[in-house]
Model the fold of this input.
Amino acid sequence: MSPTILFDGIDEPGLNTIDVYRRRGGYEMLQRALTTMTPQQVLDELLASGLRGRGGAGFPTGKKVSFIPAAHVDKYLVCNADESEPGTFKDRELMQKSPHMLIEGMVIGAYAAGANRSFIYIRGEYIEQADIIDAALIEAAAAGFLGENILGSGFDLSLVLHRGAGAYICGEETGLLDSLEGKRGNPRLKPPFPANQGLYQGPTLINNVETLATIPHIIRMGGAEYAKIGTESSAGTKLVSVSGNVQRPGNYEVELGTPSREIVYDLAGGPPEGREVKFWFPGGSSSPVLLAEDLDLPYDFDSLAKAGSMLGSGAIIVVDDSVPVVDVALKLAKFYRHESCGKCTPCREGTRWTVSMLERVDNGLATPMDLDIMASVQEQIIGNCLCVLGDAMAMPIGSMVKKFRDEFESHIEQARARNPFLGQGGPREPDPVLLQGAGNA
Amino acid sequence: MPRPVKETIAFSIDGLEVNAPAGTMLVDAAKYGDVEIPVFCYEPKLGQPVGACRMCLVEIEGIPKLQTACSTPVRDGMVVHTQTDRVKEAQEAIVEFLLINHPLDCPVCDKGGECPLQDISFGWGPGRSRFIEPKRHFVKPLELSPLIAIDRERCILCYRCVRFSQEIAEDYQLVLQERSANTYVSTFDGHPYVAPFSGNIIELCPVGALTSQPYRFRARPWDIEGSGSLCTLCPAQCNVEFTVRDDRVLRVLSRDHPEVDDGWLCDKGRFAYQSVHVDQRITHPHVRVDGELVPVSWEQALDAAAEGLRAAGAAVGALAGGETTNEEGFLLAHLVRAALDSPHIDSRTGGSLPRELHAALHSPSLQAIVPDLEFAHAVLVLDCEPVDDAPVLDLRIRKGVRRNRVKLAVATSRPSALDANATAVARFAPGAGEAFCAALNAALGGTGVVDELAVAAGAEGAQVRALAALLAEAGADVVIVYGERLTHGARGEHAARALLNVAGRLIDGGHEGAGLLELPAGSNGRGLREVGVLPDAGPGLSAVNQTGLDSRAMGAAAAAGHLRALYLLHVDALRDLPSRRTWAAALHRAQTVIAHADFLTEGLFEHADVVFPAESYAEKEGTVTHPDGRVQRLRPAIARPGAVRPEWQVLADLSRRLGHEPGILTGAMASAVLFDAIPFYAGLTLDELGGRGVRWPTRPASAAWPAADTGPFGLETPPHAPTPNGVLRLGTFRSIWAAPEVELSPALKFLRQSQRAELSPADAQRIGVGHGDHVIVASNGASVRATAVLRAAVPEGTVFLETGIAENSATVLEDAVVEVAPA
Done:
């Protein structure tokens, strides 16, 4: 069985309080890092650990910290707790049950990056979690783990919790920074990257909750030891949110490289009795879908990338054979259309166009040629956008059209046959549901 | 601050080896190889690129993804492709995307024919669309403001207008609302977008989403011609292009001149062209017959004028208004001095600065130029309000602060629009510029006690010291922008000396990037002084035999019956000049009043004996001189209406009738004679001026500028500003909108100003008036009705009233303190 690191004792009652957290050894790593190690030594451990960002892009964390310039300017650490990727709910559980782990990780991370101001940007819907963190921040500050001259180390860090207002795009790091600055949450052009010019134009380290929460454990184990877990290029464990058509949806901590089948079937219980896995999203709703036969892939960054998808935020969504693929595609496209910020052309127009086409597919008003256009539109979006939101729709939709072309076509045929105004072979009995949908009831 | 110097690098684009300045964005670098990369959102004038439209995607070897050429700086050895299949596919994709929600209503769109979206769709688009779904709809068109119509369906969300509002004009009014394809441009609360520079967004818009209400449906691009000239409605002298159809000006566009206007226009400059074609224009000469002004032939009018002038002899006073060209001013001086033998001629509305001080203040070694505002270490805005006095310079100062971190110091009586951008702000009593400069001079190490002088100026010593510290420590490049009003008033020359002392402490003479920049009261104020429209200086600031009366003294002399004739060249004496009551008496008393005017104003209607129809600025030929010494050329865009004649010709004809042949037969000859007569203009030709003008201080002939003592001077103790004890100090200002052109242009009429009394809340409470209440402001038997406007930033003890407005102008109040009472 996989080693448990982040979720070790996670369900202990009262772990969200500083007393229980400290009784379990909490904040000892903060003390060790700040009082016995130099920032460079902390950074070396992070580099040695091979930890890759858990937010979606999988960028090596140590490398990202090392990009923060050494100059004497205001530097910032921002924790991305916007967790808005559909299917992802791991940070929610972490913050709710062990907020101090995140705070401890942030202090150590800020110490390594030389940042003296830090923020947690939390998804607006996480009301309970925000309250828990606020309470934890008060405890941590009272205990001297935040504020000026932490534990007599001479290191200062302020930490402010900021609640988002409900936009998917604010989980994109530069959109998040603009939102945090009080502006409209639109992504910025990169470069400059946040490490050079981020929050308030200062060098900014921005990381996911899970990434930052892992830092104390790396200090405890030592980077080299941590790197032994998982695969060579995907070190450590990963929190996986499993949802969709499975019997035991929830968060599971797995060693990277665990066969995906083990996660879906052994941990999450597989699809309900009598159903089969039709396809699955390995890394949240923006990852290209994989088929049932891909379940043997090891669950790590490289294996999934090689299979044409991605590990993303580590959210497996399972879709079984009872669900029409068009329904999933339409739901997904509508989500991205709604969340597109509107700044760049391909995403703004492409998401809307895709929804329109999918609606016609669903109504039976489309032809197979529309599927070609739909596939082509996804191609036109991918790689041409300002940020990755456009790709986040285009990649899964594109993969669905490609892998389930037959089903899309038969969906059109069936819808056309059901539609009393379109069906071939003369008038049929009007379908009351359809009539209602058309506003005629 | 040193201007960025860019080394040249070599890169390859579409197989061509091209040299371009390092760091240039690829879109611009490509132009060095004659490669055009299409853009919508990219506009370097708006600051950093945003990469929103994605139209400029190109392939760069070594980078897997296509890159936006607008945001990728060119580097040595870069290999760029803009014609590969990949790039073409991306470009076609973007055009296809942009057009799916665009209404494609080109046949009825004002932009049609001059629309980047049309051009780029044609040049880089796929030529067909696969989009068959319903388009997104908005209610349209809507009034974004009385000047601008917005069609949100045409909008491609390039962000240009919003960026202009947020980052250039800094009025922070335009925002984007909603998300995704439902995004639209709006003001936050739906209020009309009214701001001094709002019209620029029309020109920035790359589609027909923002159109000019006055120009809407007036012409198609193939109906019109563009005619380059200048806007002479203010001293900024922006370079403009008149859009002309059938001899009517239908639109004014910017003719981007980086050294003058940076490509922006204020709304007055953009829309006041309408006043050229209003019914109120006088298009025939008028002579007073039996108490009525009646249209007559030119012969009759010229005879009447010559007769009146001959009868007055040397008892003639002549004034030239700010819109007078150098040639007209020169000919007026010739008429007055040579033909009439009168010394009384002036172009300044107040003050009587001796010619030596003019020479010192404008000496080429102390002259700052407009781009210096952008790159200076520090800029001091002294006794002027750029947004009112020379609006486009307000944008230049903001640009310097925002982009180059220029340190801004503001020292004015009235709270300035630039206060928010300033590092240091100081306030002083209206008219106490001399004492303030003396205090600043003391704080910079000169003689005098800072605090005593500050008290005399009605300022706070600490503010003066903070300002001085900022300027002294900023660096070598210090620019002082001061208003002509500083040297108005009886002690104008003392103020000028104090200013020169300050300049001497902050500015190294001859150092590039530093210097003084005056904002004259009149558009061509500088040029008119240089061509000799001064009571004590002839052409080229040369000495004259007899010093005449300045404008204020002329008013008094005429009112006392000492001047028999007044010659008003583009001067509305009752509106433009201080001391309205004196001038009303002067006009009444003078036997002969001759005026050149566009419109029959109140004073002319009652008092003028001969009125010559004036040319509008769109009809004029000649030159004007920018406040930084740039001689610029006006070219006629349209024919003169009715019987209007070139005014140089009218002046020359009058001289001729009075027995002095000026030897000028064409407009070009007038310029040539002028250039010959002014030693520091020597050798200039209209060809050399071309479309961009020439700064004479950079030419060898500038050595002929009269030498002058630039200080340091021993300063007299300045008089104390009046104590506002129960009464209030009176400060005046002339708003950008206080102009007959604004009142007469149908589109701008809504901005017509009525008198408002700006009060501090504390004073208002003491007097017992609230915001919006009517008040009467009175002194010495004269009074003005106004609406009280409470502004927290107004210093206690001072009330500000507007001048230059048609009714209730503050110029009837001649005392330094006034009483304010509820009406």
In short: The longest strand of chain B covers residues 782-790. The interface with chain A takes residues 48-55, 57, 65-66, 68, 71, 89-90, 93-94, 96-98, 100-101, 130-131, 133-134, 136, 156-157, 159, 175-176, 178-183 of chain B (CB under 8 Å).
